[in-house]
Design a protein that fits this description.
Layout (H helix, E strand, L loop, with lengths): L4 E4 L7 H11 L6 E6 L4 H12 L2 E8 L2 E7 L2
Parallel strand pairs: 1-2
Antiparallel strand pairs: 2-4, 3-4
Length: 75
Amino acid sequence: MEFNVELDVRQLACPLPILRAKKSLSSMDSDEVLKVLVTDKEAPADFAVFCRQTGNQLISSELNGDEFIFYIRRR
């Protein structure tokens, strides 16, 4: 999947992955895509809620070994 910005927050625990994603998204243009690499086991639920509350689109959520990969489209 194509993306504009990649954010590596592996090894960080909640709420840091969400806070860093929020900061990255705030500097992006509308419709740009953020790729986020996360190892926090709570991340799938956290990112689903975050996107629902902020209006950003969670395009994809994948598990690759012990890390999650999220693609989020900026609203």
